[in-house]
Amino acid sequence: MAGESDKPENTLSCANCGKPANLQCPKCMELKLPREGAAFCSQDCFKSSWSSHKSVHLKAKLSPPGTQNSDSLDEGWLYCLKRGQARTPKLPHFDWTGPLQPYPISSKRIVPDQIDKPDWAGDGTPKIEPNSSLQHTIEVKTPDQIERMRETCRIAREVLDAAARIIQPGVTTDEIDRVVHEATIAAGGYPSPLNYHFFPKSCCTSVNEVICHGIPDARKLEDGDIVNVDVTVYYKGVHGDLNETYFVGNVDEESLQLVKCTYECLEKAISIVKPGIRFREIGEVINRHASMSGFSVVKSYCGHGIGELFHCAPNIPHYSRNKAVGVMKAGQTFTIEPMINAGVWRDRMWPDGWTAVTADGKRSAQFEHTLLRLVLKF
Ligand code: MF3
Ligand code: CO
Ligand code: CO
């Protein structure tokens, strides 16, 4: 018990007896809880209400920041709803498929004026990308484009490594987003996801049963979680896109196997990439390895062409018997990013319009690289 009030005109009444109170519960102050209901007239009143009052602290710790009091709501912590819909202080109603639920998200991060931005940075709408002929024809990059892609992809790798270094139990996915945002800007880049079709954050963080496009929020990572961090950087007019799934503390055996298998799926897919191979072959290789290990392959989200556009042709499914068109040529750049599920392949979408989760609530893992295949000339 501490904190004698120095503003007698602001008198609160004792939560125990109703008399004027000028003592504040120190725990409530630490948790930034409202002063009403946390004020007492004397040590005696504080002590006699302790057994009932202390439950306030427990409740505050269980509910995520942003739902505790109006102060933190003013700081912009709100639940995300579909594009165009206002954010909300209340958890939306949904038939959650697994243990994970959304937490409030922080307000928008700022990108300095000097940084060169893609055309969606201002108003959330990509203008060049959807109308480009590169949605249908696969571009062969020029040596200059290739050089810029290398620089951008190197930055993206370093940004992802910076994010990976802070991952541990107790860290929120919003804190991961802050590291990604700041490291990207420090390198002179723009975090491509920020405001892409109104995506509210600078990277995607996908925990446990989240397949992809998880929005960084106030949830603290827990021992035993798996978390994918997906980073895309825009620098010198081109995008570089990669992601990895990390272990938080000690994870169970099935999660270990799932993440290992997903990593191997990407490695095996990369190993067949060379001019003359059909893009549809990638899905055969991935599906074979995943199903051999008793896991399933997500069908709703695919790899993609990348360069001056974030997403363009070719479309690269990760599952077998897909109908992807095209044959690989030297100088093309595209991603491979298999999402592998411990249970069923089917996905569902959260009310935020972004977060893809497994239909059965079991875990999902993903790894992604941006690829360039060049033929060595002798
Ligand atoms: N990085 C993701 C990909 O691999 C795309 C994220 S778009 C976002 O294609 F808007 F969700 F961030
Ligand atoms: Co991608
Ligand atoms: Co990505």
TrEMBL record:
Subunit structure: Associates with the 60S ribosomal subunit of the 80S translational complex.
Cofactor info, note text: Binds 2 divalent metal cations per subunit. Has a high-affinity and a low affinity metal-binding site. The true nature of the physiological cofactor is under debate. The enzyme is active with zinc, cobalt, manganese or divalent iron ions. Has high activity with zinc; zinc cofactor is transferred into the active site region by the ZNG1 zinc chaperone. Binds 2 divalent metal cations per subunit. Has a high-affinity and a low affinity metal-binding site. The true nature of the physiological cofactor is under debate. The enzyme is active with cobalt, zinc, manganese or divalent iron ions.
Reactions accelerated catalytically: Release of N-terminal amino acids, preferentially methionine, from peptides and arylamides
Binding site residues for Zn(2+) 4: D241, H304, E337, E368
The keyword Metal-binding belongs to this UniProt entry's keyword annotation: yes
Binding residues for a protein: H213, H311
Keywords: Aminopeptidase, Cytoplasm, Hydrolase, Metal-binding, Protease, Zinc, Zinc-finger
Name of the molecule in the record: Methionine aminopeptidase
Stretches of the chain forming a coiled coil according to its record: none
Names of the cofactor(s): Zn(2+); Co(2+); Mn(2+); Fe(2+)
Subcellular location field: Cytoplasm
Biological processes per GO annotation: proteolysis
Gene this chain is encoded by: LOC100785022
Superkingdom, natural source: Eukaryota
